[in-house]
Amino acid sequence: MRYSQNKEETVVLVRQVLTALGQHDAAFNPLSFAVFYEHAAGINPRLSAALDEQMHSTPRLDDAAVQRLHQDFVADVGLAEAERIQGDMQRVMTDIVQSARRTGKQAGDFGEQLQGLSGVLVDVEVQRLSPHLDAALASTQAMRQSVQALQDQVSASQREIEALRADLMRTREESLLCPLTRVLNRRGFDERLHAMLAQPPARGTQHCLIMLDIDHFKRVNDTHGHPVGDKVLEGLGAVLRSVPPEPGMACARYGGEEFAILLPSTTLNKAVQLAEAVRTRTRGVRLRNKSTNAVELTVTVSAGVAAWRPGEDARALVSCADAALYRSKANGRDRVMVA
Predict the structure, then answer these.
(1) CATH code for the domain of 302
(2) What is the mean pLDDT of each run of 10 residues along the chain (339 residues)?
(3) Which of 117, 146, 175 represents a domain boundary (last residue)?
(4) 3-class secondary-structure state, position 265
């Protein structure tokens, strides 16, 4: 794991990074934060050497300089680590806001005490102390204003961090999608599959998996070209997104022309019905000639359905569904078989 610091160490590092970032012109964002975090943690010697050299010639780094450092020395940081750092940073910023509020309240209470004391001292003929008390009151007011300004600034930073975290989550979601079909990619499928199997199915239900494969897809590419093949893949992605979803259902492009549907806590009967719905809707996909409007290509899919058995791992479930899929192809394609 790239970032192995515990919570207490991370909080100290985050405070150091916040201080360091304030000395530069680069925007306060996850990219610049990662650069200074790794430098402060001492876990990236090459980055630290490059950063020290850069700061020797340019004491205040701008966005371009920080982006180059990130690209050259930090770019392989994973999304999960970035999310964790953002969470730590958010907690520290919240602590700072709360501390500023407490300080402001204390300053206000102290100011009120000074005002009362000033009135009493004036009444007992110690006017010579009055200028000192007035100065203390003025300093207290200045401190209250300064603390309020800090609180406003940190609150604004909190809002910016929350927006950045939302962007980070959107980026993570995008990283789990196949850009062509707009369903989960293989990485997204693996994550959802393991998450599904980590929870026992509800009573009276089973975790199910449907594996689908576009029939004669190689022939489509060889005959019509890869652009048409991409259109077929897009079409199947649209079909999968159009099927009324079951609770927790997730569709994915498993690889090439093979797709998968995860169905947690369902029944084998419902899984088969869903596979048949996808097969039927796919037969309605027609690719037409733009000039003549004539149908040039129809699409069919074969499917295999399997139910998870307690004690099986993810690989066993996929293998079982794949075996049913291969039987569908062996028996003439354009059909659904159950493991």
Answers:
(1) 3.30.70.270
(2) 71 84 86 88 87 86 87 63 63 67 62 60 56 68 71 70 64 78 93 94 96 94 90 94 92 96 97 97 82 80 96 95 97 96
(3) 175
(4) strand
Q: Is 176 helix (H, G, I), strand (E, B) or coil?
A: coil
Domain count, the chain: 3
How big is the chain by its Cα radius of gyration, in Å? 31
Q: Name the token pair of 62.
A: 């701008």
pTM of the predicted structure, to 2 decimals? 0.56
Strand duo 258-266 + 286-288: pairing: unpaired
Distances (CA, A) of 282 to 108, 235, 321, 323, 326: 70, 8, 20, 21, 18
Query: Quick one: CA torsion of 64, 66, 71, 72, rounded to 10 degrees?
Result: 110
Q: What is the C-alpha to C-alpha distance for residues 309 and 328, in angstroms, rounded to an integer?
A: 22
Same domain, 43 and 110: no
Range of the domain at 70: 7-77
Does one domain contain both 300 and 270?
yes
Q: Are residues 162 and 289 in the same domain?
A: no
State how far the Cα of 181 lies from the Cα of 62, in Å rounded to an integer. 38
Asked if residue 56 and residue 84 are part of one domain, the reply reads no
